[in-house]
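User: Is it possible to get a 3D structure for a protein together with its bound compound? The compound here is D-xylitol-5-phosphate. I've pasted both below.
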Amino acid sequence: MAQINPSILSADFARLAEEAEAVRGSDWLHVDVMDNHFVPNLTLGVPVVESLARSTDIPLDCHLMIEDPDRWAPQFVEAGAGSVTFHVEAAAAPVRLAREIRAKGARASMALKPGTPIEPYEDLLPELDMLLIMTVEPGFGGQAFLDIMLPKIRRTRELIAKHDLELWLQVDGGVSASTIERCAEAGADVFVAGSAVYGAEDPAEAVRNLRELAAKATADAWWACEH
Ligand code: DX5
Ligand code: ZN
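Assistant: Yes, that's possible. Here is the predicted structure of the complex:
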């Protein structure tokens, strides 16, 4: 089933609880944590996640675009995140970190920047609950979707099928009504959307529309048919 995770990066940071309410019916709320080191932008940290977790029933999907996730990721689980994604480019010990996130009770997820290949991490996949393939360079919302990432999505879906894994495949960056079908067809099943949701007149309606487009594209996809 296609899941849609609105990114609050495109929401009003002074009204986060209301912005969460505006996307009621979403599967997860995507929270972009940036430290101005791993990416050239600065957003929010543990205290905001803690408050947001108390203010909404929608589970939080925290995407850590930060240095030293080995130190920080467990604190986001304690703050109430249901899923924590670290970047493999920043992690000192990705397997240990994934195990720690899971042991603390959250879903463990690993992200790849556009220039990072999936192949070296094939053996790591069973340690994860989700893999995030960035479809823009991380750091900012509203960027154009990188079509050149579609083969990587496809190859990752093939690896998931080959090892028969229960691994969610998330895409993030430039996902909209005009790009989501391509992502779903290639093998993604979790879709982050910032500007496409919060830039819409009715964000909840935008979520429903995206989910429907993804579900239709998935129904005809090679990877979903085989299952
Ligand atoms: C970018 C963030 C994304 C961002 C996506 O680095 O990781 O989650 O909010 O925004 P859109 O959907 O507008 O590309
Ligand atoms: Zn993100």
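Residues 39 and 139 are 5 Å apart (CA to CA). Residues 7, 9-10, 30, 32, 63, 136, 138-143, 172-175, 192-196 surround D-xylitol-5-phosphate (ligand 1) (CB under 6 Å).
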